[in-house]
Fold:
Amino acid sequence: MSHPGATPSDRHRVVVIGSGFGGLTATKALKRADVDIKLIARTQHHLFQPLLYQVATGIISEGEIAPATRVILRKQKNAQVLLGDVTGIDLANRTVKSELLGHTYITPYDTLIVAAGAGQSYFGNDHFAEWAPGMKTIDDALELRGRILGAFEQAERSSDPKRREKLLTFVVVGAGPTGVEMAGQIAELADHTLKGAFRAIDSTKARVILLDAAPSVLPPMGEKLGKKAQARLEKMGVEIQLNAMVTDVDRNGITVKDPDGTTRRIESACKVWSAGVSASPLGKQIADQSDAEVDRAGRVKVLPDLSVPGYPNVFVIGDMAAVEGVPGMAQGAIQGGKYVANTIKAELRGADPFEREPFDYFDKGSMATISRNSAVAKIGPLEFGGYIAWLAWLFLHLIYLVGFRRKLTTLISWFATFVANRRGQLTITEQQAYARIRLEELEEIAAAVEGEKAAS
Ligand SMILES: Cc1cc2nc3c(=O)[nH]c(=O)nc-3n(C[C@H](O)[C@H](O)[C@H](O)COP(=O)(O)OP(=O)(O)OC[C@H]3O[C@@H](n4cnc5c(N)ncnc54)[C@H](O)[C@@H]3O)c2cc1C
Structure:
């Protein structure tokens, strides 16, 4: 084990885990503070997750939504960015353990900000992940792009009508904002962007199914907006199947249980999972070492000042924290990050940690796009949909993207997609198209060899 090679300093040491909305905001807000910050994250970029589905469906490139964290923080001299997977937090000894390609590093802290976010949840059926990837990382989005476009490519080469049908059936599980956006964009890709680009198949005949165990679309946005979104999707040809519980997922499709208890199959080569989230397992580690509890989604039940009970120097923010009235959305993490940074700064100036004002979340509303020219938005008591909501969505997402050049190129990509029906990112590499299949073949060969060895 090695200790970090940074220069020793007497300054207050802040360790931040995660370079997402929470971790990056907290770090930036400590820019002028008299502290030494180490930001440790398993990805070298800051990811703007709300636009991942646009990477998956070829509208924008991954660079547009995932700038390198160290470049964002280049001018912030009190912050060092460290790549590594945090595998351990030791609350008693105030250290964080991280790993990078077989090397282990121990980083001591005075204050710890844990913002490791959430991963996809398959509700105990983790084997579904192999056949229905979620959408949490750039790797996920590129994998899905490979699967979506790869399915069209294979359908063009197939002369078997049944196989073609399976290849041209896309199932999105989970009718929350991500599922709605994904289903809408696959439908637009098939109906507009790819129209006329194939000779043996008609891409506009592709079937897009959006499926959920819940009885409505977009449940967090309320009945009125849910119905609006549903009607718009149906107009675009998306099949919506509600009260439909997925009981199995395999290479060739999914098995669904309906409310009357009957089960049925949907043959589909390309499945997308956007049905649930579960917080980083680091939350459970914190709970095991403190009086904190985790909720069913693995989120840490923090105190009103976002700290861990018994550890006023350890904060959990963003998707990892369970705070009454704070949704698992970017604003929750951003505002949490700012609040914690301000708390640290105030206490460096002598404020009493036992007199902290509680974190006060300001709800700025939520929105989801359905297709070009159509979105739904909920801002305070206001609920609206259609073109105005879509323009508001475009504007807000542009504002929150990091960097002027990135905003500009994204705007150009959007213009090309939404006005001219062209997508600039329809490339899939050989790796993306074949690597997973080849890996599966290798695994099957390895399993067969193991079986033969065991039998002899
Ligand atoms: C597809 C999708 C669409 C979304 N759309 C919207 C939207 O439209 N509007 C909205 O408000 N919200 C949206 N959200 C939710 C929003 O993105 C999250 O609420 C927000 O990112 C939470 O911020 P965070 O800092 O808690 O975690 P994240 O932004 O997820 O960041 C977590 C960070 O921790 C790092 N990390 C994780 N585990 C480890 C580890 N063990 N060691 C080191 N580093 C680690 C990750 O690499 C990452 O840098 C969407 C989310 C997804 C997935």
Observations:
- The longest strand covers residues 35-41.
- Residues 326 and 345 are 23 Å apart (CA to CA).
- The chain has two domains: 2-42+84-120+278-355, 126-275+365-418.
- The radius of gyration is 23 Å.
